Amino acid sequence: MASEGSVPSKAAPPPVLYSFADPDELSKGLASFVLAAQDEALKKQSTFKLAISGGSLPKVLGQDLINRTDVKWDKWEIFFADERVVPLDHEDSNFLANDNHLFSKVPIPRENIHVIDTSKLDNPEEVADEYEKQMIATFVGSNAIAFPRFDLILLGIGPDGHTCSLFPGHELLQENDGWVAYLTDSPKPPNTRITLTFPVLNHAHRVAFVASGEGKQEILHKALDQPEAGLPCSMVKVVSPGQVYWFSDDAALK
Ligand SMILES: O=C(O)[C@H](O)[C@@H](O)[C@H](O)[C@H](O)COP(=O)(O)O
Fold first, then answer.
1. Which atom of ligand 1 lies closest to the CA of 193?
2. Coiled-coil stretches, from where to where (predicted)?
3. Domains of the chain, first to last
């Protein structure tokens, strides 16, 4: 019998692009998409398992979602697609960014938000290992699984095409075994981070990239028009029946 994490056999389908007139419409569209993913997940299982990045994403995500009435917040199980290895109240923390724009404004049970163990901040390898253990405890039931299958992973994209904390030319682009990896040489500060690996991204039911505003124009076009260029964001190839989506606005798509 196939287990949740067994290697799917079909090739990755092409990404689906959703474009919106402006950032407000993008936030509404993204909220509806997240809710559809929630509903589909909860038809099959008791929790909606989501991973979220940092950067500009938490603001876009929270803006409309916090006002929706049809969210089953108590069923959400949240991980960070990547996290900076800093205290949770540090201005660089992806937890804090998501807390400011989303978590603090809605009734998500705090124990369902999986944060890094801040008692280990001086040892990023241990932070990554402990975070992976939290994922194993959440995803592994009676079946052993190779990789977890998130219902949805929400990601941003950097000007160099990085996503999560997976940067062009970095050795972590070749990481095929672990679920959570660490790096101490991130080109984007702060330099010490943990990140989900490509196999985890590629086993998700859905991965959605969010790219909004003029600043994303150049890299968005490169990612969409030259998938063969090998940008980290283009290396996210969710295996069928999973799907990659891009959420964008007119300013980014011009
Ligand atoms: O922690 C991080 O730095 C992120 O998770 C990172 O991958 C981010 O999503 C991109 O750098 C885009 O960031 P912006 O949306 O702020 O441009």
1. 1
2. none
3. 33-253 (3.40.50.1360)
